[in-house]
Write a structure and sequence with these properties.
Shape of chain A: globular
Strand content of chain A: 15-25%
Shape of chain B: globular
Largest interface: A-B, 41 and 42 residues
Radius of gyration of chain A: 31 Å
Order of helices and strands of chain B: EEEEEEEEEEEE
Distance between the termini of chain A: 49 Å
Helix content of chain A: 25-40%
Largest sheet of chain B: 4 strands, antiparallel
Oligomer: heterodimer
Strand content of chain B: over 45%
Strand order of the largest sheet of chain A: 3-2-1-7-19
Bound molecules: siroheme, flavin-adenine dinucleotide, iron/sulfur cluster, FE2/S2 (inorganic) cluster
Strand order of the largest sheet of chain B: 2-3-4-10
Radius of gyration of chain B: 14 Å
Chain lengths: 831, 116
């Protein structure tokens, strides 16, 4: 008997998921897929990341061979044009006619394009497919201003994309009196509008567009209130329109405002035809999110394989991504008193607005809105969905528990087993916990493999991690911050063990305290510990170094490296500048002033590195350790040597400090700054340590950080002299080196330190642990054993030999490393 | 059954050209092959040098090690740390990426790689 044939129309997110779900349940079907787009299914939810360097391949939901490997016939670029229900056949554009036993419509939706005069003009786009984004990207190159029509979820995402594309002036035009009218209330919208304006977005509310003016190309928007706005491009994001044209043609029931009508089994008015995803209309509702679409896919897969499952609507809670401001709305966000009690929190200074709606008896959470800080979103959503009884002071939910210990973990473990944690993949708390208890899963990677939780939008990952830790704890499994599967120790424990036992190489450490053969996580950790303790030349143990440390340079796109000589305090003589110029020219390097007050030379071939460094070292340069988890730069301002406000000589001090700590390996990189007065031109308060001149001496700040989560440094000591600054810095840095987890910057380390800044102050300034002298001695030992590792490398023939791309053809360069011209220099070819 | 296609063994380099517990790259015509001296286990492996993730010629510069209870030997690409089994070449993460692998023989201090 031949297998029943299932034809899937549409190879979008939901159509793909359906294939996956059906295969997981049964191999008894012949699956045939037709897609209108030229490429196989990709992740539309993360479409905007296409602008941030993700390729179509990265976005693909599977490889192309996945289909054939699973016996699925895939016809791309070939839309279905007609369904003949009496014959049970379909006809495609390219002329394929096929008989189906079951037909699955997963045709999604298209962008709704309002009927406005001029809408067909060049420079007007929609935002739905990779092709749309390609067109937008190409047009944006020559555009200075742009507008997005529609201030909803997608419109704001598109607006952020325009900013990221370099459109200097980006507008959002919204017809309603507020942004995201379907998700948030007007107070929330006001706050959001304020935050978005700070990001540089121009927001126009209550505006309806009457016409799009321009010759062939868009030039301006004309509004009903007779105002105008000149723009070079327009992205329309005014809502979605379900693709029901095929269904309509076949005489299936469709809604008056679009959408293919389905029952709770996702069957259309023809029982052999199902509709799922954004084209399906269930009880008058189109579900424009991916999670309900996946649920629908599972219901049909279950139904075809005689499983029992029905659709009963779906939670439409959302968290806006990418825009640079947290926005979330969940449960019943709009319900008002007297039907509920509402708690509001507003901080216009920080741009935070939070609202929760709770039942009148104060027992349950109904829904809410979060703007500016949505960290609590996952937990609040769970609280609504699982009707968890609220604490006596429900305001703690949005304010955080003040005073007492914050306890995020306990909350998660109190969720019921059927609580849906990952809605994209429909994974419950029960499934996650049993993967830990019965499946031996101990980390997020294992969990992704085992249950697929966290592989969709990724929003649930923090919750999943808490659940893994919580379950392990409950099972009596000791959860600690171990380095990796090869070492059951935290970095700090390993540091002490290596020190006490005087171990000098990785293999010894692995034999004594580890298992297996090590990996790319524990090798660099141990390498860093060995270096912090014994300060030997790191390339003597090259194979345990991270790639950058192994070749003493940062690896870049295309496999070339960058060269950063140390320029202490940012001070450099004209002669040295000339040498840098000459070397760059000779080896064809791209040069750029870095954000750390020095010069980076990019695009060096591996085999040129020793030659380049030979010349630099001859001219008096040293390694800048731009590749290492080590001291990078100590930024200086010009200070009292030239500046009319300068109180002390900040440049000299910066050079002294940089020279003192250069080369020292730490859990993460370290940066410093020295400013000559409170105007703070060296930005010292954004560094791991910052020194600022005062009338009476210097103020010392520690634990600041730029990067993705900027944090200001905090004051450690006031009005101290230079010697005391150095003493405290010795203690501070050594204490950090000895106790921090790997890859933890000082700011993050401080955030996790019990007792925080007051504890740190006690240890460093008041010497509460009696460690002061020891820390200073340990630091002095490192300072005394400083060596320029590049000098060691070029003078050692065995080490030098390693800087070759081909070991059997050392003089040949990698033909794969390729460059493109750019503004009179070269750049790495795009990958 | 014997395979029909005879493997041709090429002399790739000398044993001490490849650092212990690390890798080096050799050129064979237009091909680039990464060779690993897994000294800790007294094993040798060879794979394509091109990382299939972003087409970077860098696998030989990656760190080697083992994964899991049965100590699957692996290499991590230095670019984005995707890890691949040295036995099968398969990516150990979620991606469906594969490295081509080659057999390796050692004789008289020389390293030979089998090419078909
Ligand atoms: C060259 C430079 C950009 C520039 O053209 O200005 C740069 C380039 C890189 N940065 Fe940076 N950063 C540079 C200044 C900065 C600054 C600004 C500063 O130092 O004042 C910051 C924010 C300040 C801070 O660190 O607190 C910065 C925050 C980062 C981060 C985020 C760190 C964090 O804790 O969040 C990373 C990622 C990391 O280290 O893990 C990073 C990583 C990198 C790496 C090393 C990425 C990599 O591993 O390949 C880049 C190497 C490029 C290359 O091939 O050489 N870079 N990077 C700057 C070199 C400064 C120098 O002279 O050494
Ligand atoms: C920029 C953007 C951001 C988004 N962000 C989020 C988010 O953060 N969270 C979230 O949950 N959702 C988000 N969404 C929505 C999400 O992408 C959709 O809910 C999801 O893609 C719906 O899947 P689908 O398969 O129903 O439709 P689609 O993914 O649109 O797939 C339908 C496919 O069917 C094809 N098709 C149509 N007619 C035919 C035919 N006759 N023959 C053959 N093929 C046909 C179409 O070309 C299309 O490829 C976002 C959408 C966009 C555009
Ligand atoms: S910080 Fe003070 S001393 Fe330094 S440049 Fe600015 S004003 Fe001058
Ligand atoms: S290029 Fe190898 S992991 Fe990305």
């Amino acid at each position: 008997m031949s297998k029943p044939t299932v034809v899937v129309v549409g190879n979008g997110m939901v159509g793909y998921k359906f294939c996956e779900k059906l295969l997981a349940r049964s191999a008894q079907f012949q699956i045939i897929v037709f897609g209108e787009e030229p490429r196989h299914a990709y992740d539309r939810v993360h479409l905007s990341e296409y602008f941030n360097g993700k390729t179509a391949d990265d976005l693909s939901l599977s490889t192309l061979s996945w289909y054939s490997d699973n016996g699925i016939a895939l016809h791309l670029d070939d839309p279905i044009q007609e369904i003949n229900r009496s014959e049970k056949t379909i006809h495609s554009l390219k002329g394929i006619t096929l008989k189906y036993d079951y037909l699955i419509l997963a045709t999604g939706s298209s962008a709704f394009v309002p009927d406005i005069p001029g809408i067909e003009k060049e420079g007007v786009f929609v935002y739905r497919t990779i092709e749309d984004l390609e067109l937008i990207k190409a047009h944006a190159v020559n555009a200075k201003s742009g507008a997005v029509m529609g201030g909803g979820l997608l419109g704001l995402e598109a607006a952020k994309a325009l900013i990221d594309l370099g459109i200097a002036e980006t507008h959002v035009i919204e017809f309603a009196p507020r942004l995201m009218p379907r998700q948030i209330d007007s107070a929330g919208s006001n706050m959001l509008q304020m935050k978005l304006s700070q990001l540089g977005l121009h927001i126009h509310l209550n505006k309806s567009t009457a016409a799009i003016a321009g010759e062939k190309k868009i030039q301006s928007l004309k509004f009903n209130d007779d105002s105008q706005l000149a723009v070079d491009m327009l992205v329309i994001s005014a809502g979605i329109r379900p693709r029901d044209e095929l269904a309509k043609l076949a005489g299936l029931h469709v809604g008056t405002r679009g959408g293919i009508v389905v029952n709770e089994k996702m069957q259309t008015s023809d029982e052999c035809i199902y509709a799922i995803g954004e084209c399906a209309l269930y009880e008058g509702m189109i579900y424009g999110l991916v999670a309900p679409g996946y649920e629908m896919a599972d219901i049909v897969a279950a139904h075809l394989t005689e499983g029992e499952k029905s659709f009963y609507g779906y939670d439409m809670s959302t968290k806006l991504k990418l825009i640079g401001v947290d926005v979330a709305s969940f449960g019943d966000a709009f319900i008002t008193e007297p039907d509920c009690r509402t708690i509001l929190f507003e901080d216009t200074h920080k741009g935070i607005y939070k609202r929760i709606n709770i039942t009148n008896d104060g027992k349950n959470l109904l829904g809410g809105i979060l703007i500016g800080d949505a960290d609590a979103y996952n937990m609040l959503l769970q609280t609504v969905n699982n009707k968890i009884v609220l604490p006596p002071d429900p305001e703690d939910l949005i304010l955080g528990s003040r005073g007492g210990e914050a306890n995020a973990g306990a909350g998660v473990m109190s969720l019921p087993d059927d609580a849906l944690i990952c809605s994209c993949e429909a994974v419950t708390k029960g499934a996650i916990c049993s993967a830990v208890s019965d499946g031996g899963v101990t980390g997020i990677d294992g969990m992704k493999k085992c249950t697929k939780a966290g592989t969709g939008c990724g929003g649930c990952v923090p919750l999943v991690k808490d659940l893994i830790a919580g379950t392990m704890k409950a099972n009596g499994q000791y959860v600690k911050n171990v380095v990796c599967e090869h070492f059951d120790y935290s970095r700090q424990e390993l540091f002490d063990l290596v020190k006490i036992n005087g171990l000098k190489n990785y293999d010894l450490v692995l034999d004594h305290y580890g298992k297996g053969d090590g990996c790319e996580v524990c090798k660099p950790v141990v390498a860093s510990i060995l270096s912090s303790l014994w300060n030997d030349v790191i390339v003597k143990q090259e194979v345990i170094q991270d790639s950058n440390d192994r070749f003493l340079a940062n690896i870049q796109k295309g496999g070339t490296y960058s060269v950063v000589p140390r320029i202490p305090g940012g001070e450099i003589t004209p002669d040295k500048l000339i040498v840098i110029g000459q070397v760059a020219k000779k080896y064809g390097l791209y040069t750029k002033i870095t954000g750390g007050q020095r010069i980076d030379l990019f695009g060096a071939h591996l085999s040129d590195l020793p030659l380049i460094w030979e010349e630099l070292i001859d001219a008096g340069f040293e390694s800048g350790h731009a590749y290492g988890k080590a001291l990078r730069t100590v930024k200086s301002c010009v200070g009292s040597t030239w500046c009319r406000f300068g109180l002390h000589d900040s440049v000299t001090f910066a050079i002294e400090v940089e020279d003192r700590y250069k080369g020292i390996r730490a859990p993460h990189k370290i940066k410093g700054g020295v400013s000559g007065c409170v105007r703070e031109c060296a930005e010292a308060q954004s560094k791991d340590f910052g020194i600022i001149a005062t009338e009476k001496g210097w103020n010392l700040y520690v634990c600041g950080n730029g990067g993705s989560k900027p944090q200001h440094a905090q004051l450690l000591a006031t009005d101290i002299d230079k010697e005391t600054v150095v003493k405290y810095l010795d203690r501070f840095l050594m204490f950090y080196i000895k106790t921090a987890d790997q890859l933890t910057r000082t700011a993050t380390w401080l955030n996790k330190l019990d007792g925080g800044m007051s504890y740190l102050k006690n240890v460093i300034v008041n010497d509460s642990l009696g460690l002061g002298e020891q820390l200073e001695e340990e630091m002095q030992a490192l300072v005394n054993t400083y060596h320029c590792e590049w000098k060691e490398a070029i003078n050692n023939p065995a080490m030098r030999k390693r800087f070759a791309h081909f070991i059997n053809a050392p003089d040949e360069k990698d033909p794969h490393a390729q460059f493109e011209p750019m503004r009179e220099q070269v750049r790495a070819k795009e990958w | 059954m014997e395979t029909a296609i005879a493997t041709q063994w090429i002399m790739a380099c000398y044993v001490d050209d490849v650092p212990e517990n690390g890798g080096s790259c050799i050129k064979h015509g237009d091909e680039q092959i990464a060779i690993f001296n897994f000294a800790r286990r007294n094993e040798w492996y060879a794979t394509q040098n091109l990382c299939p993730h972003k087409q970077q010629m860098a696998i030989s510069r990656g760190m080697i090690g083992s994964a899991g209870e049965n100590c699957e030997p692996k290499v991590a690409c230095p670019f984005h740390k995707k890890t691949f089994s040295l036995l099968t070449g398969e990516c150990l993460g979620e991606e469906e990426l594969v490295l081509k692998t080659y057999p390796v023989k050692i004789a008289d201090g020389k390293v030979f790689v089998g090419i078909d």
